[in-house]
Amino acid sequence: MRLPLPESSITDTNDISVLNGLITTTLDSMKGYEDAAKDAESTQYATMFADFARDRAKVATDLQNQVRNLGGEPELDSGMLAAAHRTFMDLKQAITGKDDKAIIQEVERGEDHIKAKFEDAMNDGDLTPATQAAITETFASIREGHDKMSALKHSMA
């Protein structure tokens, strides 16, 4: 006979799962920005993409620390799965063309994806207040990146 898990253990498991999903998506985003920085024609864009990659690394680290605080094992590498994989494969194809406008369009699509993932997590009513706070705090950086890429894309249209 299997004993039921204590309520806090179930909550921690959900929190860890949600956080690890966000970590994977954030690391995918970081790698996408690193690729964009390497292949952008403009040094201005290359510098901006490198800055965003560093910001995403910090977000991932903050979320990893929250997983550790919950007693879990955080994701340490990107997953390149499902929609994130497709998004960043599209980004890679755009980078191969070395067209800054196409790169920015694909980066902005990736930003839409990561913003939606964070918004979904923030709407998860089963998260503990500490996890909810960690996600909300890191979302500020995600939203800022999304808004900057969106504005840049629209300025190039």
Instruction: Give the SSE string.
Output: HHHHH
Measured on Cα atoms, how large is the radius of gyration? Answer: 17 Å
CATH-defined fold name = Ferritin
Question: Would you identify the CATH architecture?
Answer: Up-down Bundle
Number of helices: 5
Major pleated sheet? none
Q: Terminal Cα separation, in Å?
A: 63 Å
User: How much is the average pLDDT?
Assistant: 84
Low-confidence stretches: 2-7
Strand content: under 5%
Number of strands: 0
CATH level-four homologous superfamily name: Ferritin, core subunit, four-helix bundle
User: Strand pairing plus helix content: what structural class?
Assistant: mainly alpha
What's the number of domains?
1
Relative helix content: over 70%
Choose one word for the global shape: elongated
Output the CATH class name. Mainly Alpha
Question: What keyword list fits this structure?
Answer:
157 residues; Ferritin; 5 helices; disordered N terminus
Outline of the structure:
The protein is mainly α and 157 residues long.
List the helices and strands and how they pair.
Blueprint: H1 7-39, H2 43-69, H3 82-96, H4 100-122, H5 129-156
Walk me through what this model shows:
With 157 residues, this protein is mostly helical. It is 80% helix and 0% strand. It has five helices and no strands. Residues 2-7 have low confidence and may be disordered.
